[in-house]
Backbone:
């Protein structure tokens, strides 16, 4: 058998995915894209959870990642509802134009 | 013996009339108000008959009021001979004045309110008299002050009446401040406020040749007494208190409440006798008050003002008596004064009532034809206050003056001079009101029987009240005053001289008084304006206080410091907030950038912390 994939590779992948998510969140203007960036970050974190769980032979990380998925699902439901409402009211998905909640 | 029934009956009257007076007919209000006081009087008589002769103090304990550490203050009522006399005077004269008030107040608004207050006053006055410790006495003391305020300001739509009420209340506060300090000192010194315990402890203490704790206590008690009993320097409220209805002037500001200071002093006689300095102060204050108030009384034109200054002057006599150690003579004068001064005020009230509110002596004259009963009864009262032989004033005033002579002859001579002035101004008022030609424009008429009845009873008491030998009754408590027939007749003679002078000035040669006043223009103006004492007090005390409160306390402390601090904190918070709120840009991506930045800073910080560890 080949040697197993080293732990650091998973973590690097996770970090890359997270950084991509952050970049997308900050740089993109479309709400849908921003939303997907959030999902990307969540899953990057999930990946590190599972990695460590495998490494330490403990089930905690799995459980956490399930939690994250549940939260992500709920967030997706609420978030998409918000996005729909915003679009209905303002006819735009540009995040910079939704800025009435300020001083 | 159910002593508590005595004050509770008027209290019930107050509650009934005060709560339901608006809805019940006048007749029922009268029955409740007069009936409760009359029942109280009847209960006093029954109690005293059952207790007689009251050789020792009879005490009833009801419940413990305040229990704190060593201090134990109970609600206790007690009756001894001193209390017995006060009870008879307060409830007896009180009943007569209540009956009179039914007639006097008939056409006035706030009828039920008046009688409710009057009953409340009776309650507090009886608590004051029955109290067996200083705190309970103080309750009555403050309560009568409250009722005095309410009743002086009874015509509350009139500016001068409310001002007079406030003045009475505020001036009394000064006296009450002294009184409460005295009570604190008594607690500190004796650990109790119970009369019997305090006086027993004080009996064992030496007479204080120089100022000591007892001198301090008694001087502070004296401050309280000068406030309540209208002595120099706190007498200024009493003449103004005449703004109240006349029955109030008679009951509160002549017969009962203003004598509370004398009663309290006599009650504390054990303490006062141990402090000769205070005794001298009391005597001098009393004498000075008697003299100066009498001079003011010579010139006043308002019939009630004449009698008001006369009251101040007579109270000065009482303090003179107490100050020279003739406690029983002081109480004797309290009693006779209650008779003849209540009569003077009620008679004046009958005149005012008959003239539809006219109080100026210059607008009266010749009224004896239209008001024979008022004229005759007022004449009796005037004789009594002048100390005409064998009237009540003759006995009590001369008991005081003889005692003063034993202490210091000059006090006697000033007292005699004052007696002459008293006779003069009282008869001046009488002649101006009842003889000569009528100078006013109203239609004088005699008052109804409900008013003249009490007048006649009080006239009998004024003439014959002196034969109730109060000094003899009080002998077990206070040594009887010295007797000196010659001195007594001399002062009576001076009183008669005063009456004759009044006859000369106002009957024989009516123009003489005016030319006299012109001859002494400067002095007359000074006296007519009451020595400008009110103006001096205004300039020396009231104005600086008001001005100081306005500039320092209001504009400086309140508006400047307190408001400045509060507003400053608010303004500073707004300032900081206006900077901080710029963070809330509403731009989601900038929020996200802040989060990222924060996370990075946090990570770096954790990294450093790990390195440092």
Residues:
């Amino acid at each position: 058998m080949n040697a197993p994939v080293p732990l650091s590779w998973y973590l690097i992948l996770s970090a890359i995915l997270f950084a991509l998510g952050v970049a997308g969140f900050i740089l993109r203007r479309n709400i849908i894209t921003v939303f997907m960036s959030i999902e990307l970050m969540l899953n990057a974190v999930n990946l590190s959870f599972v990695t460590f769980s495998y490494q330490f032979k403990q089930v905690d990380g799995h459980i956490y990642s399930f939690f994250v998925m549940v939260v992500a699902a709920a967030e997706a439901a609420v978030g998409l509802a918000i996005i729909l409402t915003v679009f209905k009211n303002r006819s735009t998905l540009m995040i910079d134009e939704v800025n009435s909640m300020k001083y | 013996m159910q002593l508590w029934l005595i004050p509770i009956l008027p209290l019930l009257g107050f509650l009934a009339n005060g709560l339901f007076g608006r809805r019940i007919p006048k007749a029922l209000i009268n029955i409740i108000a007069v009936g409760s006081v009359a029942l109280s009087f009847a209960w006093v008589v029954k109690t005293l008959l059952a207790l007689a002769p009251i050789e020792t103090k009879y005490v009833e304990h009801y419940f413990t009021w305040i229990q704190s550490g060593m201090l134990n203050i109970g609600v206790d009522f007690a009756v001894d001979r001193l209390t017995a006399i006060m009870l008879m005077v307060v409830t007896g004269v009180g009943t007569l004045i209540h009956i009179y008030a039914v007639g006097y107040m008939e056409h006035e608004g706030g009828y039920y309110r008046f009688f409710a207050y009057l009953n409340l006053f009776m309650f507090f006055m009886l608590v004051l008299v029955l109290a067996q410790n200083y705190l309970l006495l103080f309750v009555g003391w403050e309560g009568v002050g409250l009722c005095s305020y309410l009743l002086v300001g009874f015509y509350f739509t009139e500016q001068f009446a409310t001002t007079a009420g406030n003045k009475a209340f505020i001036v009394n506060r000064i006296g009450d401040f002294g009184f409460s300090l005295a009570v604190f000192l008594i607690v500190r010194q004796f650990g109790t406020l119970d009369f019997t315990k305090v006086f027993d402890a004080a009996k064992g203490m030496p007479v204080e040749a120089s100022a000591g704790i007892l001198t301090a206590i008694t001087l502070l008690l004296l401050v309280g007494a000068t406030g309540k009993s209208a002595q120099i320097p706190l007498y200024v409220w009493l003449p103004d208190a005449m703004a109240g209805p006349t029955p109030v002037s008679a009951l509160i500001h002549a017969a009962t409440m203003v004598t509370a200071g004398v009663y309290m002093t006599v009650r504390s006689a054990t303490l006062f006798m141990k402090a000769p300095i205070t005794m001298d102060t009391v005597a001098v204050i009393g004498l000075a008050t008697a003299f100066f108030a009498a001079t003011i009384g010579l010139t006043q034109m308002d019939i009630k003002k004449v009698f008001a200054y006369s009251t101040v002057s007579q109270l000065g006599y009482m303090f003179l008596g107490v100050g020279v150690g003739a406690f029983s003579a002081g109480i004797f004068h309290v009693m006779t004064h209650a008779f003849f001064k209540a009569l003077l005020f009620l008679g004046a009230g009958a005149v005012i009532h008959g003239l539809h509110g006219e109080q100026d002596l210059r607008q009266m004259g010749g009224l004896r034809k239209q008001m024979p009963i008022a004229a005759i009864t007022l004449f009796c009262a005037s004789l009594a206050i002048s100390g005409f032989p064998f009237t009540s004033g003759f006995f009590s005033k001369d008991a005081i003056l003889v005692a003063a002579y034993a202490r210091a002859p000059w006090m006697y001579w000033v007292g005699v001079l004052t007696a002459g002035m008293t006779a003069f101004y009282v008869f001046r008022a009488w002649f101006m009101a009842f003889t000569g030609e009528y100078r006013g424009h109203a239609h004088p008429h005699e008052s109804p029987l409900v008013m003249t009845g009490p007048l006649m009873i009080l006239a009998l008491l004024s003439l014959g009240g002196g034969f109730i030998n109060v000094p003899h009754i009080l002998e077990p408590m206070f040594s009887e005053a010295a007797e000196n027939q010659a001195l007594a007749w001399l002062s009576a003679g001076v009183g008669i001289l005063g009456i004759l002078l009044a006859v000369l000035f106002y009957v024989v040669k009516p123009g003489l008084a005016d030319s006299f006043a012109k001859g002494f223009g400067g002095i007359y103006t000074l006296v007519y304006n009451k020595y400008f004492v009110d103006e001096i007090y205004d300039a020396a005390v009231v104005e600086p206080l008001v001005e100081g409160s306005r500039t320092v306390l209001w504009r400086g402390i309140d508006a400047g410091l307190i408001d400045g601090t509060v507003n400053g904190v608010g303004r500073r918070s707004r300032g900081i907030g206006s900077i901080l709120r710029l963070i809330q840009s509403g731009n989601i991506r900038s929020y996200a950038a802040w989060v990222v930045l924060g996370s990075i800073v946090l990570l770096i910080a954790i990294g450093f912390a790990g390195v440092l560890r």
In short: The mean pLDDT of chain B is 90. The CA atoms of residues 355 and 443 of chain B lie 6 Å apart. Chain B touches chain A at residues 581-582, 584-589, 592-593, 596 (CB under 8 Å). The beta strands of chain B are 58-68, 71-79.
